[in-house]
Design a protein that fits this description.
Elements (H helix, E strand, L loop, with lengths): L24 H15 L6 E3 L9 E4 L14 E12 L2 E7 L2 E10 L2 E7 L5 E7 H14 L4 H4 L7 E3 L5
Antiparallel strand pairs: 1-2, 2-3, 3-6, 4-5, 5-8, 6-7
Length: 166
């Protein structure tokens, strides 16, 4: 079901989320809500549970059809994700559904390996690079109560009003 998106400065966005452990029916319902909510916003490639008011360690990501991701991993549900490895560094512009009026320059690793639980309960590692790695890290930040505003080098120089597409 499509859920309302929590917007900054709502305190839930700054609250670390609790682990899910073995996913059950409630986790599967949350994954569906995340996918449907993200799908209701054009060009959205990710959303995390706290963005719909649920303080669980889950995020949904899908960079399929994004021109910046030539070989996407497809739709992903990250449950209790842990960053295992990262390399490189690159500054890129990021937006966020919970901060709809701005974008910001954020430095992130270029490649990542993440261990996560799937909806069937199996743990696995995924690796990604470039824009998709950035999306994964952005959504994982939400699970720790970290926003793009916390990651910018300068609030004055690295935060911009969002350009509206018409």
């Amino acid at each position: 079901m499509i859920q309302p998106v929590v917007r900054y400065p709502d305190a839930r966005l700054k609250t670390p989320c609790v682990p899910i452990g073995a996913p059950g029916p409630a986790a599967r319902a949350l994954a569906q809500d995340l996918e449907e909510t993200a799908g209701s916003f054009p060009r959205t490639v990710g959303i995390a549970a706290p963005q719909i008011g649920r303080l669980w360690r889950m995020a949904w990501i899908d960079c399929t059809d994004n021109p910046r991701v030539p070989d996407p991993l497809g739709p992903l549900v990250l449950i209790d994700p842990v960053l295992v490895a990262s390399s490189g560094a690159e500054v890129g512009r990021e937006g966020c559904l919970s901060l709809p009026d701005i974008t910001a320059n954020v430095e992130r690793p270029v490649t990542v390996t993440v261990e996560t639980t799937e909806l069937d309960g199996e743990r696995r590692q995924i690796s990604s690079e470039g824009f998709e790695a950035r999306v994964i890290l952005h959504e994982m930040d939400h699970l720790d109560g970290i926003l793009i505003l916390d990651r910018v080098a300068s609030l004055l120089l690295d935060v911009y009003p969002r350009r509206r597409r018409g």
